[in-house]
UniProtKB/TrEMBL annotation:
Its EC number is 2.1.2.10. It comes from Ruoffia halotolerans. Residues 12-269 form the GCVT N-terminal domain. One of its GO terms (cellular component) is glycine cleavage complex. NCBIfam families: gcvT, PRK00389.1. This is Aminomethyltransferase.
Length: 371
């Protein structure tokens, strides 16, 4: 099997046993779907779904000055966090381009738990070590120690209530509790976070016990409409929720300001890597802006499709970074980078799909507010 040459998550044998088609996702063997993407997507929007995302990285950083040190590395501000808090941020290079977008957790005094995207883990680990030449902090790659299961949807809290200690239900959004017990498995980190736009939790589980927790979730969740979900539904859910995907909407050629996560860039804090470059980008009147769009003509706009001001214009004003047919709203929508002078909400644009200009309207990425 070709997927045997890929990295294997804790559920790999389970996937093979079920006869699922696995795909290469950042070098890992993962399923696109278990049943139908529409069914899995609907479960998360209406009841509850679970995703295995053990391919994500986990890096522990410790030191008496860890918050100050990490503040020079990231675009957001560590001083805004308190114990148990999570914060979404980006790491950029000196030119302001995005090396990764990630969440880190302030899990204990002088200790951060950082979760880079799978394909960027080695790059981010090297970047952190490069900027720790004086050993200000201790950096430990724990990616091989944790499996990761996301429990997402309106019924996610009900499922966990039957499996976890009552303390878990006290979690606020963007918080993590460590040293928790789930279904008899100890040393689990639980965060109230997710990538779907719904109520949800992410469980960082000792690698060898991840499959056991998955099976328990299936059994407990059956009465709550729980479904297993793959990469396909994960992508449609995050897109409807207006959440960026590294490699599409963010990259080493796209700054966080132009990629739609300017809210995670604090230009008011003291110096950090890339700050000067990002200030220049922000003040550029012709910079790209990340916008939502909805097609008003027929078709589906995919990553890389060119955008024009009119049907006749030869001037490219932007490019699609993510696009799909929305399972919830039954229409084609997506994200695009568009030059600022043309990026006004409700403006009409034309996207070239198979050599034909298809009309679309620029929108905010707030589709779920109208769900």
């Amino acid at each position: 099997m070709a997927e045997k040459n890929l990295k294997q998550t804790p559920l790999f044998d389970y996937y093979v046993e079920k006869g699922l088609k696995l795909t290469d996702f950042g070098g890992w063997a993962l399923p696109i779907q278990f049943t139908k993407i529409q069914e899995e997507h609907d479960a998360v929007r209406q009841t509850v779904g679970i995703f295995e995302v053990s391919h994500m990285g986990e890096i522990l950083i410790k030191g008496s000055n860890v918050l100050e040190w990490f503040n020079q590395i990231i675009t957001n501000d560590t001083q805004k966090t308190s114990l148990n808090d999570a914060q979404y941020t980006a790491i950029v290079n000196e030119n302001g381009y995005t090396l990764d977008d990630l969440i880190y957790y302030y899990v204990a005094e002088n200790t951060l738990f950082v979760t880079p995207n799978a394909g960027n883990k080695d790059k981010i680990l090297a970047w952190l070590n490069e900027h720790n030449s004086d050993n200000t902090v201790e950096i430990v790659d724990q990616s091989a120690e944790y499996g990761l299961i996301a429990v997402q949807g309106p019924n996610s809290e009900k499922v966990l209530k039957e499996m976890a200690t009552p303390e878990v239900l006290e979690l606020n959004n963007f918080q993590m509790f460590s040293e928790q017990t789930i279904a008899g498995v100890e040393s689990v980190r639980i965060s109230k976070t997710g990538y779907t736009g719904e109520l949800g939790y992410e469980l960082y589980i000792p690698w060898s016990e991840t499959a056991e927790v998955w099976e328990t979730l299936l059994n407990v969740g059956e009465s709550y409409g729980l479904k297993e979900c793959g990469l396909g539904a994960r992508d449609t859910l995050r897109l409807e929720a207006g959440m960026a995907l590294y490699g599409n909407d963010l990259s080493e050629e796209i700054t966080p300001i132009e990629g739609g996560i300017a809210f995670a860039v604090d230009l008011n804090k003291e110096n950090f890597i890339g700050k000067e470059a990002l200030e220049t980008v922000k003040n550029d009147p012709n910079r790209y802006m990340s916008r939502g769009f909805e097609l008003t003509g027929k078709g589906i706009a995919r990553q890389g499709y060119k955008i024009y001001e009119s049907e006749e214009s030869t001037k490219v004003i932007g490019e699609v970074t993510s696009g799909t047919k929305s399972p919830t709203f039954k229409k084609a929508l997506g994200f695009a980078q568009i030059r600022k002078p043309y990026a006004k909400i409700n403006n009409q644009i034309f996207i070239e799909i198979r050599n034909k200009r298809v009309p679309a309207m620029i929108t905010n990425k707030d589709w779920l507010k109208n769900k």
